[in-house]
Each structure stands twice: as C-alpha cells, then as structure tokens.
Amino acid sequence: MGPRTCPGTVRSPVSIRAVPSRTCPATAVGRDEALGGSGYPESMADISVTPVRNPPTVATRRKTRKIHCGKVDVGGDAPISVQSMTTTLTANINATLQQIAQLTAAGCDIVRVAVPSQDDADALAAIAAKSQLPVVADIHFNPKYVFAAIEAGCAGVRVNPGNIKAFDDRIADIAKAATEHGTGLRIGINAGSLDKRLAGMYAKDPAGALVASALNEAKLFEDVGFRDFAISVKHHDPVIMVQAYRRLSEVCDYPLHLGVTEAGPAFQGTIKSATAFGALLAEGIGDTIRVSLSADPVQEVKVGVKILEAFNLRPRQFEIVSCPSCGRAQVDVYSLAEQVTEGLKDMTVPIRVAVMGCVVNGPGEAREADLGVASGNGKGQIIVKGKVIKTVPEDEIVATLIEEANRIAADFPDEGSPQVLV
Ligand code: SF4
C-alpha cells in the first residue's frame, strides 16, 4: 500500500516542502508517538509558511481592443468583468433598479436588461440614469429599440443579428448613433437564433457557423468604420462553445464576452460555465463573462465572481479552505466548516480561513492561511499567520476562529487585497 496522503490537500508545493512526509502519523506509526501526546506532530510546531499574496494567474491575457461600457472598460488591459441580466419586467423601473442593487452588492460589473416592448424601451432612460452599474439593453426583433436604447443613455446595446430583421440595413445608422453617444455594442450570436442562411453550415460545423455569423456582422460594422463592439458566440454545449471562442480569438481582436447559453439549473449551469470558462481563461481568452443559470441572477454573479477569483483574475474575497474529510477525521469537518462559514458570512476582508479535520496535513495547510485550525484528539490547534497561538477544546473551535478572524480583519491593511495580474 502506498503512503496514506490527505485527499484534501494534494495541491500546494509550499506545503509539500514544509511537511516532510504526507504519511498519516495516526496510521503509519503509533498515534501517541506520532502526536507527541499533544495531538499534533512535534515536527510541525516550528513550521511557518507565509500566506500567499499576489498569486500568479493561469495565463497571459490575449490582447484585445478595449471598448467602453459606461464606466467599465472591456478588453485590453481592463480586468475581466462579470455580467448578469435582470429578470424583472424592465418597464417596472423600481423593481429593476432594486434587482440591479442586489447584483451590484454581489459583485456584478455590468447589467443587461431585456427590451421586448415599447414600455421597456421607455423605461431605459430612468434605469440608465439611476443604476449603479452600466446598463446594456438587450434587443431582439426590433431595430428601433436599438436607437431608443442608445438615446436613453444605455452604456451598451446587445444586438442579435439572427433575431433582428433588417438589422443589416441599419448598420450605418446604428454605428453613427453609437459613436455620437459613446455607446458600446455587443454582437451577440446564439446557436438558437443563428442567421438562417447559416443553417446548412451549422449542421456540419456548429462552432464554425457561430464564428462565421459573428464575423459577417463584424465586417458590416467595420465597413462603416465602427469597431467599438464586443462579440459573443454562445452555445449550450461547452465543447462547441469553447471551440467557437477559440476560433474567433484566432481571427479577430475584438473583446470576447464569454457565455454558455441556456446552461441549465444552478448546479449543472455552474459546472458547464466553470469548465468552459476555465478552459478559455486558461488560454487567456475572455474579457467579460456571464454565467447563465435558471436561478436568481445574484447566484449567476456569485458564480462568475468565484470563477474569476479561482484563477486570480479578480481579487480574492474572504475564503474558507476546508478539507473534504475522510476516515481519518477527528472532528465533524462539514459541521465545523458550515458553522465557521455562517459565522463569518458578513466578512468583507479578504482573509483565508482553513478548517482541517485532522493532523495529517492540517497544520501545514492551516499555516498557509491567515487563520486556521488543525483538529485532533478533541482539540483544535489555532494557527494565525503560520504561528500556533493556542489550543482549544473542540467545542470552542468555532467561537475562537470567529473571534480571531474578526481580530485579524480589524488589523488588515487597506492595501492587503491581492493584486490582480492580467
Ligand atoms: S481528515 Fe481532512 S485533513 Fe485529515 S486526512 Fe482526511 S481530508 Fe486530510
């Protein structure tokens, strides 16, 4: 049998160096001997690992043109932004602004609103004026709403060429109005509303058809000298979606708005979006993202933010690092992690708290966090920035962690947020 390694902590080169062996001391040798009678391996008592700041990103961003969406830049060296879309009736101005406020609080950067009727178009000016976020009007079927949105002061307009009759004939007018008002556009291609002229191609090469459609529309704008637009080529299948964005990124430098469309309910949609975005972001592709879920749009934003944080493309916020538990656990890790998460749910300072179930790698992992606990033998070793500060009984672990987390947060330097590297 090979060494008994911790299934929850096989990732960090720092802890691999710091901990001489990943063999579980409780099983490879006698427990008392391994724990030195205190519940912890003595060899770990002096190990100090500085929590990682300014971590690297997974890839160098592909160079794209920068466009403006109100106060938010998209593309170029601008941070990758998170978008969502309201689910309220746009004509209901108060309800829409209230949802925009919720999305803002969740970390959204740009918000899109649907404009299916004249009543919705009429509400745009008030929404654009009062929204904390740049507002993008989502237009299908009727080109006149494109002009209404631009004149209403929307930061951007999303047009779906496959769904707007006579759109191609109005390109010059739209480009002129957008230029005069400083409005950014998005050419939003969706598999479900692809230009019918590309149906034959789509049957054989769906990703190619999405790209061809996008480039056709881009060319129409280029021909009138307008290039202030982003492009999306969304598909519900993450594989086709990734292929389409890859191919598009090879042939143009327009900023790309990533999305897996109709991704499904929260669980499935989160996985589809995370895998597809992860594949593309790992190649430096993507300038703004929208997670599409059949769920509260606040959830979409939270997922989008976490995807970017996971790749260090957005400053990490408060984070719980907890092990998955296993047969070696000496405490109820799930309950401990849940209680600590609940107790610190309002934490706004980007500290990392580690909750580890036993002494195999618990101390090593906890030392990489700002604050952590390594549990064992009915006790918890509380570790702050690499130093063991105290050992408390198991029933005091949660309260101690919360108290220490709040103390660390109060002393946290303003400039302490990890820097986003792009
Ligand atoms: S209880 Fe947690 S820390 Fe301990 S070996 Fe299992 S997964 Fe790793």
Structural notes for this entry:
Its EC number is 1.17.7.3. With 422 residues, the chain is an alpha/beta fold. The protein folds into 2 domains: 64-311, TIM Barrel (Alpha-Beta Barrel); 319-411, Sulfite Reductase Hemoprotein, domain 1, CATH 3.30.413.10. The chain is 38% helix and 18% strand. The chain has an 8-stranded parallel beta sheet. Strands 11-12-13-14-15 form a 5-stranded mixed beta sheet. Helix 7 links the parallel strand 6 and strand 7. Helix 4 (93-106) crosses helix 5 and helix 9 (206-223) packs parallel to helix 10 (238-251). It starts with 12 loop residues before the first helix and ends in an 11-residue tail after the last helix. Mean pLDDT is 85; it is low at 9-51 and 415-422. Bound molecules: iron/sulfur cluster. Iron/sulfur cluster (SF4) binds next to loops. The site of iron/sulfur cluster has 16 residues, from loops.
Considering the chains and any ligands shown, give keywords for the structure.
422 residues, 5-stranded mixed β-sheet, TIM Barrel, disordered C terminus, Sulfite Reductase Hemoprotein, domain 1, 18% strand, IspG_TIM, oxidoreductase, binds iron/sulfur cluster, alpha/beta, 8-stranded parallel β-sheet, 15 strands
